[in-house]
Amino acid sequence: MFIYIARRIALGVSVLLVTLVVTFLIFFAGPADPAQSLCAENRCPAVKLEQIRTSMGLDRPISVQFAEYFQGLFVGRDITDGGNVNHCSAPCLGYSFHNHLQVSDEVFRRFPTTVALALLAMVVFLGVGVSLGVVAATRRGSAFDRTLVGVSQVFGAIPYIVVALLFALYFTVLYPILPQTHPFSDGFGPWIVGLIAPAIVLGLVTSTAYVRYTRAQMVDTLAQDYVRTARSKGISGRSVIYKHGLRAALSPVLTILGLDMAGLLSGTLITEQIFSVDGLGKLAITALIQTDDLPIIMGTVLLGCVIVVALNIVVDIAYSFVDPRVRLS
Amino acid sequence: MRWTHVLAAGAAVSIGVVAACSAPSSTTNGTSDTSTGPVQTAGASLDPNAKGPAPTDPKAKKGGTLTISYATSPSSMDPSAQFYQDSGAIMTRLTMRSLTAFVNRGGKQVLVPDLATDLGQVSSDKLTWTFKLKSGIKYSDGSTMKAADIAYAVKRSFAFTATGPTYQVDYLKGGDKYLGPFKSGDTFAGIEAPDDSTVVFHLAKPWETLPYFTTFTQVSPIPQAKDTKDETYGDKALATGPYMIKSFTQGSELTLVKNPNWDPATDAARTQYLDGYDFKFGTDTIKTQQGILASTGDYGTTLDWDPVDASFADQIGSGGPKAKQFVSGPSSCTITVNMDTRKIPLAVRKALAVAYPYDDLYTASGLTSLSGRPAHTLIPPQIPGWLDYTVPGLTGQGPGDPVKAKAMLAAAGYGPDKPFEIKNYYTNDDPSNIAQTVNQIRKKKLEAAGFKVTDKGVAGKDRRKLIADPNGDYNIGQSPGGWCFDWPSADSIFPPTVSSTQLTSGGTNWGDLQDPKIDAELARIQKLSIAEQGPEWGKFDQWLMTNYLPVLPWYWDRSNILFGTKVHNVINDDNHGSPILDSIWVDQ
Amino acid sequence: MTLGSSAVAAETLEVGVDPELSDAAESSRRHGRTPGQIAWDRLKVDKVAIVCAVIVVFFILIAVLAPLLVKLEGETLNAFHPELINRRNTLPTIGTTAQHWFGVEPRTGRDLFALWAYGAQPSLTIGFLAAVSSTVVGIVMGLLAGYLGGIVDRVISWVIDFFLSLPYLLFVFALVPIVQNRVGGGRILTAEETSSLRFWVLLIILILFGWIGLARLIRGEVFSLREREFVQAAKVIGVPTRQILVKEILPNLVGPIIVSASIAVPGYIAAEATLSFLGAGLVEPTPSWGRTISVASGGNFSAYPLHLWPPVLGVALLVLALSLLGESIRDAFDPTTRR
Predict the structure, then answer these.
(1) CATH number for the domain including B59?
(2) What pTM value is reported for the model?
(3) ipTM over 0.90
């Protein structure tokens, strides 16, 4: 068991390290020119651009920059910015090129929004998905079951952007039934209320998969011998379904949940973009498209990878407790 | 500078804050002017004897907060680095006082003394300007302002010329070699503060319009001891105006509250009606404008100064049901199509002017009569001395005449077997698709006139770099795509755009001109007094366009201010193209 | 394990491989006919499948016949009609007319039917090309990893793990300009060159991230197949590895491969629309539904809904039909499905 966990973690760490290098190379060695995006309109002659590059440290070899970044991540580093020396303690993600704030502050300022959106969506898709899936399984073959499966199939098959976009356009803009999004700085109330609309869309669309998955698991479980035994012993139908059936059916669902949450927590790009939610995904896209703010891009990508890798490990380990065969493969 | 608007036009314009004292057709609450009628000019006004407090509106209610939403965000609130319409309007009207300031008097912008007691005294050789300061001016933290703080701020501005203005570099003594106090130390011959209440400017050449420059926030006092030595100073900058910064988060929000140490008796230019201002940056323009038009909830006290989406034009245009919620007026910008005179012969430039599809491109850019007026001169009409001339074919409007252009090209020796090649860069990642479709239309129309067009699509952020290079592989559409005057005299238009020294600085030259005749003419006019300069600049405009045709004038940009039903006394500053923020009051 | 076309999958741009599909191949071997024949017989009587197939064929016809249809309408692609635009508000002066079946584009007056019909072309081409290519890559990687095992398997599994931990959308965003730079040789291209180059760049990137699911599936299948008697027997009598893979193992994987490919097609079409919507996809003058949706929804969409709805319905219907067809194909290959 211990060896399996150790191996799994080692694998995760190796993936993270390579991601770090690859991301750094792609973004820092790519065609982006952050100095240009700092210039007011076109008022930057070549000399000025060179000055800006020097002040950002972009004129040095890529290996030196990487070594510094790497050092910053683990032991912290001093960053010279416009005549000031600031200490940035580990894990140091550097300073934003754009507004000179610490990347870690910028990233963690957005993180609660992304987490809240993911959790709210989870409430929706678990609540709706699992409960409807269970009901459908117990009434297998009924009109309700067939309608539900059909609707979830259709709803889940339409491209997500279309569903999310139409929902946003019609329910928050044209007929503003649901409140619009607000940044966290507008206060807790408006912030959390604004997340309802995106959470509903994200949750409902995700729930279509959970309906079908829960239903399939539940159908399987209810056909198992031990459930039949319980039934034959005279335990009431409801008790069988919820005590014996649901518990067994839910453990594979939880596995998928872990992976899904990893995806959502690392930034719900499309949802955040469409609803203009001030989360990690929007931060990353803005940095990528508009400002070439490399430290911000690196920071968001790294945080996303860490979440995905960590949750993957957790899921795998949890699964290995449930199903010992996994450890041996 | 309104970035969104400029991007929409498919051309990047330069420049930002603008100052002016002539204001012809100011439009006040409810009388939005959307006609394309003639524009009148007005003379510049100076009032060296203005005293505080500024007159207040007897109808005005006190208190409340105004929310201002804006699609983009100022990159900093540093007074030395700012040179934009948005941060300029915020700082000059609300938080930062300078030596001089503009005040709106019945729709006319008048230059008055601000921290200084007059508009400056110039020496007989015109190379020394002396300003005496009012006494008892306090910062928002209660400390007293000193003349040395202004001298320091001016020196500090030399460290921020990458983003800020560069007039001080050209005009102040030793300015061409000074890099600011962080790199070059405190010794600088261009400015001094001999005592606590005197500031003296030493010039390298006469500068008649210096009192206009002293309205800039680069001249607003900064105590050296409080300086963070970078743009983060702006986040908590000490205020001298009626409001001060409570918090600033770049990209999302700026909150201003009343400055308890502002004394209205010393300020002839500003009023203080509201309890505070809440600026929201990076907002969704369409959503905000829809909300403001409906004026539900917080939108009732919200103001938006992004260009209004064309689809709302029927509602807010004259006679529309929501016309009372909209104010529009000239901004300071002339939008142009830049051509490289070194690569395109004059005869071909004239053919291009005839072939150019001004109207189609204007509409395809999403622009309407709310956005601008067709331009036929480089100087906008609100500048004193504007000459209303017309070079045939240059009206800034019309569908373009490919037949006539073809004939002109043939006369210049170009035909189907030997077409003239137009090369341009365009943005191919504009999310609104405007830059891309504008490029296609231009290409089709110019090809119809017999040009060969090579259009090169690049990302918007790359295009800005490419078109700032005067020696790139292209011949139209280089930077700047227009010019916004910085004060109401054409000496803030022409020397910065057509003098030969500008070609090397990258991205601020019209036509890539380098001509001794032009330089001589510029120098001659600049030696005249302000009043004499006006008409001479008008003549210069006509002479330049007739003989050189470096750019095609396209339109004079207009400001758009949309606000909720509870917002009152919104006035456009015709020479800045932004609302006069401190004069606004709200119902609660 | 990925979930078909759920929101999470959309957010990560994963192209669906269904978790339930792995048993299909194994159990279908027990019948006398080939799994393909059984599946075909089942599909022929599946009403949903037939309706979906008709819809898909309809869109394929639209795409193929686009030039003809647009000619029939009396229009050409990307012809500008400024005369049909109200200069006061930049909206079209007309709605649906005989000359312009779907009206014209606000601001420019381009014919929206032409944009729509031609817009089906890149969607379908990218969908099918990417599905075929990523299936081939997935099969090869899966076979290699599963059959050779050892170091090859470790490397491939590691690469799969690596790709799965990347934030897809961000990487695609970042990679598009880089790949374009590399493929384009670093020089600046004209509008038409960029537009067609972008098509291939998009295809490459979709394939790059698209083979993983199938590779994992095949790897697992091969793991169990290679221990079976017929494979062991072939090994013992000295059949070369390549022949074992192609002749013995691959035929047993036809079911899951067809199913995975058919589910991948709508995934790629949705991915293309999503990327174009977000601005990392196809560029002018190549028409694209995703970009039209982005442009129409970016402005005041309610002022001229004709701009938004045709591409929205187009991509939604096409992807829906292809997805349901894919599920029908999966059901047809699945022996446990009760009919």
Answers:
(1) 3.40.190.10
(2) 0.82
(3) no
